[in-house]
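Support request, please re-run this one:
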Amino acid sequence: MESVSEPRRQVGALPFRRMPDGSFSIFLITSRESRRWVIPKGWPMKGRKPYEAAAREAYEEAGLVGRIGKRPLGFYFYDKRLKSRDSVLCQVKVFPLEVRKQLKAWPEKGQREGQWFSPADAAEAVAEAGLSGIIRAACKREAGTAG
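Re-run finished. Output below.
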């Protein structure tokens, strides 16, 4: 039996854009294995601050470029399935990414699907309750500061 170890740390970006009416859209991508809706995320990168690594993941996995926030919105946990079929508990620190543009080509293009969602639909689409809560809270907070 495995001992309960500390969760592995990951960083993720919550890609969003402000719509002309002041509302928000959230960009989600599919995971490569299970094809469920997730945010761009990955392991911390040596020599990069956590928010820089999160922005890099958004570029690699979805071709998204924008302004990354330096303060995390929060974090959530999920079980990551490894190639060995084992799974590890991961804690993902989520940083807001205000998307300026999506590139025509990026490293993982064709390996995943991506789609813009309303915040409510994005919160429903993701499987992880913690991530769903971060999406809902972030959009409420942003909406409160708009105008």
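The beta strands are 8-18, 24-30, 37-38, 41-42, 64-68, 74-81, 87-102, 114-117. The CA atoms of residues 69 and 129 lie 22 Å apart.
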